[in-house]
Design goal:
Blueprint lengths: L2 H19 L9 E4 L10 E3 L9 H23 L4 E2 L5 E4 L20 E2 L6 E21 H4 L4 E9 L6 E10 L1 E6 L11 E13 L7 E2 L1 E6 L3 H18 L7 E2 L1
Parallel strand pairs: 1-8
Antiparallel strand pairs: 2-9, 3-12, 4-6, 4-13, 5-11, 6-9, 6-10, 6-12, 7-8, 7-10
């Protein structure tokens, strides 16, 4: 056996493991998010809220406070699941933002604040980690009652090792949701049902009522291991140096 053959065989054993480490298996199913049903059998969609949509404008005004309280109570539920909150360990960058409504508003705990885009569709949110993470849940908050035509209607989620190699995971149509939605990754990696990546992108392709700009009041990312936090914090030293040496605007945060 020649040296080249031995080298090829060794690489053949190594490269598939590297590729699979960040594999994203696209889900062909077009998922519709509707709290009243339609995808009850989907193992990767979970509604924290079971609120009903309200059509009357006067009734809507009277219930805004209820939705804000529900936001907080559902967020508390998310935090108490026992997973590690990786949200603020990432570097966040939005494709645009309206002055006073930066992407930081989407990861705070205040239901009255929100990120608002200020540009042409699709609107994009890039989420980058300094180290590979094992994501067990991605939680998003949508509310047609409070955000009306600013509510996203069609979104796509991409993931990968970096922005250049990110693959489409799934497309979601937000039809009738007023609360937090948990997206899990059963079947993505059969051995552990995780999304293993360093980069996630959320694309908003359209809004309800043909709205132009979008609101997002809440995004959370959860991992399944406490050791991830230590690993990411160690890697953040290098990321911090990169951030400090770059031109960072209010539309991006870590």
């Amino acid at each position: 056996m020649t040296t080249d053959t031995r080298l090829f065989n060794r690489l053949s054993n190594v490269l598939p493991k590297w590729d699979n480490a960040f594999a994203v298996i696209p889900q062909s199913q077009h998922a519709v998010l509707d709290v009243n049903g339609g995808n009850d059998k989907d193992p990767n969609i979970h509604y924290v809220s079971k609120m009903q949509s309200l059509e009357d404008a006067e009734e809507q005004e009277e219930t805004l406070e209820k939705y804000f309280k529900q936001y907080s109570s559902e967020l508390e539920y998310l935090e108490q699941q026992g997973f590690v909150n990786l949200t603020k360990l990432a570097f966040w960058k939005a494709s645009s933002f309206k002055v006073g409504n930066p992407i930081a508003n989407a990861i705070d705990d205040d239901p009255t604040t929100f990120w608002q885009s200020d540009g042409v569709q699709p609107h994009k949110i890039d989420i980058s980690f300094s180290k590979r993470v094992d994501v067990v849940q991605l939680a998003l908050y949508f509310c047609l009652i409070t955000d009306e035509s600013y509510t996203p209607e069609l979104i796509k989620i991409y993931a990968g090792f970096s922005k250049s190699d990110a693959s489409l995971y799934r497309t979601f149509e937000i039809k009738n949701v007023n609360g937090w939605v948990i997206i899990t990754f059963n079947g993505n990696r059969p051995q552990d049902d995780l999304l293993r990546c360093r980069f996630i992108q959320i694309q908003i392709l359209s809004n309800h009522e043909n709205g132009k700009d979008s609101h997002l009041r809440g995004i959370r990312i959860f991992g399944n291991s406490a050791t991830q936090k230590k690993t990411i914090n160690a890697g953040n030293q290098a990321l911090e140096m990169l951030i400090q040496s770059s031109a960072i605007t209010n539309e991006s945060i870590r």
